[in-house]
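Hi Q.,

Before the meeting this afternoon, I wanted you to have the S-adenosylmethionine prediction in hand. No need to reply - just skim if you have a minute. The sequence and ligand are here:
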Amino acid sequence: MTATADSVFLARSEGISAEGVRDQYADGKAAKVWEIFIGDKNSRTDNYKNFLVDLLRQKGCKRLLDVACGTGVDSIMLLEEGFELVSVDASDKMLKYALKERWNRRKEPAFDNWIIEEANWLTLYDDIQDHIKDGFDAVICLGNSFAHLMDSFGDQRGHKQAITNFQKCLKPGGVLLIDHRNYDNILETGSTPAKSLYYNTSHTADIKTSVLFYCGKPTLVSMDYLIEGNKLSSEFRLSYYPHELKRFTEMLLEIFGAQAKHKLYGDFKDMSLVQNPAFYIHLVERIRS
Ligand SMILES: C[S@@+](CC[C@H](N)C(=O)[O-])C[C@H]1O[C@@H](n2cnc3c(N)ncnc32)[C@H](O)[C@@H]1O
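Predicted structure with the ligand bound:
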């Protein structure tokens, strides 16, 4: 049997079962904190919101698939901006908050029509087949979510399977927007910038970072988050596969085709304007046949 990095190291907070999909959010701790400290729907930074909304409008997108909707923060922001959303996530603990918001705002047509499903990227195309129709204008996978998917076989087959599913959900000419932290820098320095670029949070956060090398390769990065404020304090651990920029870009083009249009952004800016960003955001277009 092949041991994998996440089987030799505790990749999630203690007490979380690892059965089925490895839902690192299953104890509800991070989900609760997301709502209170990080993911309030009005607390997205203007930089982030303007980047995302302007880019989707420039590309003429209307129907979007949010494949890592979590508590629904991005989806809610995009619904309020007039986009149509199908939002999915593998964690019912995270989805609970999105479902609650849909119910509370059900009298608004955009929320009444909002589709929310539980789905896993590895089986996504089958999981949501009825909702794909002619394909989405855009698939978004944001908030460093994709890095949660581990490399269980050491050859990135799961990563490729998930990205193939994202591509299959797009209409020809549709775009995938997917991000990851700057793991090249995390591997070099052993630390993660704690300041959030995505949220205007007034709560202090510290992120203690550990890197696990397995068979000589960096295979797993664990981040222990400490979030404090308003007399509340929360700690949780989340783990990630460290996607290096060059390899991640190659993998996207292997799946979308070498001719596919690909553009890279750093911290929501053109790469010419930013050095050593905390986040990379890739935009890749499905070739029109
Ligand atoms: C860091 S949260 C981000 C949520 C949201 N995009 C945000 O920025 O607030 C990552 C989300 O990815 C989801 N996720 C991780 N692995 C997944 C998988 N294999 N299939 C579907 N969702 C997954 C988790 O359940 C979690 O809700």
